[in-house]
Design brief:
This protein is mainly alpha-helical. Helices cover 70% and strands 2% of the residues. Strand 1 (58-59) and strand 2 (66-67) form a beta hairpin.
Length: 211
């Protein structure tokens, strides 16, 4: 990837992110359901406890008390979850979506470019950008905004395919750990499958390789 292509990818991401995320940065939160009844209380409680110097191991406010950090969707072990400790919830949520969709955009771009480069001799930059836009801002990803852990986990899935494609066991391990820490375990299953598919496709497309 050239510096010019990277600049184009960055410009396209920020333009599309501005269209989709402007209402959130303007102060709106688009959901009333699980966002305000579950995730906002969870993430606010985690931030309050951590800022007070305590690990939020127990949630005394639901189900007559229940383990808190054992719930993967509260993202206490995820780097993306740090944003909710640093900013008020509404602003943190906007930054979180920008970061999660950024991961999905550039992971999709790199994965699709690797795939297309192996299949066709022509330029792959433009088609890969279109793939990244479709993956990042398509209905499936945006419809999960109500579930921050789902959106955050989704961003790691293209990297699992990419590391599987590259045959990097360390990369697959790190991406799987990051996805698990972000909390939506259902999507991690898809990611591990994507890593296996990437490895199989690369193995079959490489002369002399065995799958």
């Amino acid at each position: 990837m050239t510096a010019r292509e990277m600049r184009r990818a960055l410009i396209l991401y920020f333009l599309t992110a501005g269209v989709f995320l402007f209402p959130l940065f303007a102060g709106s939160v688009p959901y009333i359901g699980d966002m305000t009844r579950s995730f906002q209380p969870w993430l606010t409680y985690a931030a309050q406890e951590i800022q007070a110097g305590r690990l939020p191991q127990w949630n005394p406010y639901t189900a007559c008390g229940e383990p808190f950090m054992a719930n993967p969707q509260v993202m206490t072990m995820s780097p993306l979850g740090l944003l909710f400790w640093m900013f008020p919830f509404g602003r943190a949520y906007a930054f979180f979506l920008a970061a999660a969709h950024g991961l999905l955009f550039f992971g999709s771009y790199l994965a699709s470019r690797a795939w297309l480069s192996s299949k066709t001799p022509g330029p792959s930059h433009g088609p890969a950008l279109l793939t990244a836009v479709a993956m990042t801002w398509g209905a499936f990803g945006v419809a999960h905004w109500e579930f921050p852990s789902a959106v955050g986990t989704l961003g790691f899935l293209p990297f699992l395919f990419l590391f599987g494609w590259a045959g990097s066991g360390a990369g697959v391990t790190l991406a799987t750990a990051a996805a698990l820490a972000t909390g939506y375990v259902q999507f991690v299953h898809y990611g591990v499958f994507a890593a296996f598919v990437g490895w199989m496709v690369r193995a079959r497309s490489t002369p002399g390789a065995k799958a």
